[in-house]
Structures are given as C-alpha cells and as structure tokens.
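Severity: low
Component: inverse-folding endpoint
Summary: output formatting inconsistent between runs
Steps to reproduce: submit the following structure tokens with default settings.
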C-alpha cells in the first residue's frame, strides 16, 4: 500500500484498513491490513485493532502538546500516569467493529485505571477535542463511531476544562469511587448517554449535554453529584434528560440481585429540556435503607408522570424556585441545529441563583447580577 499523507482526509483518512480472507489446506482465517494515512502521533497496540495496551509514565506527567493530532488505535489503558492535554489538543479515536474469531465488538476506548488521571485544560476559544477519527463531512453527525472515555474504579483527580467529546457511544463512564470534575465541557452526538456513572463523584459547571440517544445524565447506584449552570437537551429517544438512582442490579427479576448505595445529588441553575412528558427520572428502591438526598435549586425541569401519587408527588418540595416547563415554552435559539443559547423570550432568562464561585458562562461571558439558567448567559 502506498499512501500520500498530504492528500485530504476524504481520500486518505488517518487509518486505512482492510482484511484478506485466506484459506490454507481448507482452514480459513483472515489477515488484517493496517496503514497510517496522515501525519499524526499514533498511539497503538503492537498487535492490531481491538487489542488492549498500556500507557504509563511511572506516576509522572505526560504532556501531549504536539500540534499534530493524537490518534488512538485499539483500547488504551492509562495507568501510573497523569496525561495532560493543553488547550487545542486534538485526539481522534479510531473505532468500528472488531472481528475476533466468532466475536464482534466495538473498538476505540480510552480507559483510566486507578493510578491513571486526566488533566485536560482547554479554553473557551481553544478547547480540547476528543472525537472519532473520521473527519469527512459525511461523518460529522454519525454517532457511535468509537466507544468513549472510561474512568475506572478509584480513578480520581480527573479534570476536564473546556473539553469537547463527541461521536462516541457514550461520552464518559465514571465507575465506582472514581471522581471527575468538569468545567465548560460539551458532550454531544452520542449513541448512548453523555455521562454514565455508578457510585462515583462528579462535579460539573457550565456544561452542555445534548443529542444523546439515551439519557443525558445516567447517575446510578448512588454517588455524589453536583451540577451547576448545566444544560441538558434530550430531544430524541424516550429517556429522561437526567436520571439518578440508589441501586444497581444484574437481574431485574431477582430482588436479591439488587445492591444499594447512598446518593447525594445537587442541581443548581440547570435546564433539563426535551420532548417527553418527564425529563427527570428518580429511582429510590432502598426506601429508607440508604441515604437518598437530592435537591434542585432554581432549575427548569419538565415533569408530569413523575408527580403521580405512586411515584414522587412531593418532587417540588425538593425543587426550590424551579420552573416547571410546558410544551411550547421558549427556551433555546434552535435546538434542532444544536444551538442551545437562550432565546430572547426564553423562560430561563434571569431565573438563576447567583453563585459567587461561578462568574462566567461556557463561552467565558460574564454572568449578570441576575444570571440566566443553563450554560449560556444571554
């Protein structure tokens, strides 16, 4: 294979691959062909697509500051290392279906183990971008091109500032006792939730989650969560913009398979919008066995069936100074085109509770003395 790395991506993408099916003495097998098509920093396993490999730096920092993009091929495990992504870093993850004997599975994962940490330091004008490696126009809105970002058991001290994650199956998954802090981040165009969490710690401010083909925020099996000035747009599918539960089960039909953990969740100055009757979901199955502590403050929420007598009719006792959204309420400029800035007639204007520690919005714009809900100040 001969490749000209200066050709446009439409003719020569970052990674070019194919298979040759071979039959030797009646026994079939296939050979995988791989080639690098563009000049970039390739971080790859030695034995091909779909394989796991470890990235480590002996508990030091590794700064990915090359102006060329970084291309991840396979399943990258990061451990004993803090990966630092300066403003403007671009990471492209090669995904797709892997055929291994008779098994098919999705490829393209960045996974942080217990001693692996992420320090992404984008800016409003120069964000860190993590996405699939197909940059052609026809792939711009294709979901599930790669699996997503995983913060595994006890991976803590992870920070993402002004980081964009898109075109994956999930945005980030934060597992048991892991912790992630997010400021000014965007996760969109995913085939599943923007965030999947299980008994983890997550802090988020001025973040935007939208065009996620499932829940926006799926916060399960307890944990500690704080979301300030965040916007979650759930305008496709039948799942809520946010759901939080105190349980996890491996078999919904077996009551002994349920496990419970304490949950503490705080949502302040957030917008949870969407097409369904309910954009907030609650699952408290422990019924007093565990702590289940949630509160919404100055949020715009859409709820209906959630208020039924057999569910959570007292929901607004835990939703202080909230706006109950109705169909037809003005919120965003044009959510169909991914524009979640506030409309001139938005019901979210001037309805936020001023927070001293947060003085700007996602774009770095100064918050007013009577600020607006969500990640964008009008």
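Observed output (run 2 of 3):
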């Amino acid at each position: 294979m001969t490749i000209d790395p200066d050709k446009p991506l439409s003719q020569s993408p970052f990674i070019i691959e194919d298979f040759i099916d071979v039959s030797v003495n009646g026994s079939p097998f296939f050979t995988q062909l791989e080639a690098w098509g563009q000049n970039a920093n390739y971080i790859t396993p030695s034995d091909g697509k779909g394989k796991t490999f470890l990235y480590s730096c002996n508990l030091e920092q590794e700064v990915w500051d090359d102006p060329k993009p970084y291309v991840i091929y396979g399943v990258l495990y990061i451990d004993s290392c803090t990966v630092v992504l300066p403003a403007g870093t671009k990471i492209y993850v090669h995904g797709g279906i892997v055929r291994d004997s008779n098994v098919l599975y999705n490829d393209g994962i960045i996974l942080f183990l217990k001693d692996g940490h992420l320090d992404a330091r984008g800016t409003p004008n120069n964000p860190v971008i993590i996405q699939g490696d197909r940059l052609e126009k026809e792939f711009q809105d294709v979901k599930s091109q790669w699996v997503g970002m995983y913060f595994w058991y006890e991976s803590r001290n992870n920070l993402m500032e002004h980081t964009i994650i898109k075109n994956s199956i999930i945005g980030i998954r934060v597992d048991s006792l892991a912790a992630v802090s997010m400021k000014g981040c965007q996760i969109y165009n995913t085939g599943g939730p923007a965030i999947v969490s299980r008994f983890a710690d997550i802090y988020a401010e001025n973040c935007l989650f939208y065009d996620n083909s499932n829940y926006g925020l799926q916060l399960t099996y307890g944990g500690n969560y704080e979301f300030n000035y965040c916007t979650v747009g759930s305008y496709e599918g039948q799942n809520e913009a946010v759901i939080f539960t105190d349980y996890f089960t491996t078999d919904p039909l077996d009551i002994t398979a349920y496990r419970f953990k304490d949950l503490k969740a705080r949502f302040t100055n957030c917008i949870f919008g969407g097409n369904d009757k309910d954009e907030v979901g609650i699952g408290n199955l422990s019924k007093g066995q565990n702590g289940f502590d949630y509160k919404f403050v100055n949020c715009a929420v859409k709820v209906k069936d959630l208020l039924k007598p057999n569910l959570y009719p007292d929901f607004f006792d835990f939703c202080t100074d909230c706006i109950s959204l109705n169909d037809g309420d003005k919120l965003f400029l044009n959510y169909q085109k991914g524009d979640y800035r506030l409309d001139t007639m938005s019901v979210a204007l001037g309805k936020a509770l001023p927070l001293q520690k947060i003085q700007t919005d996602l774009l770095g714009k100064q918050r007013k003395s009577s600020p607006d809900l969500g990640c964008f100040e009008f």
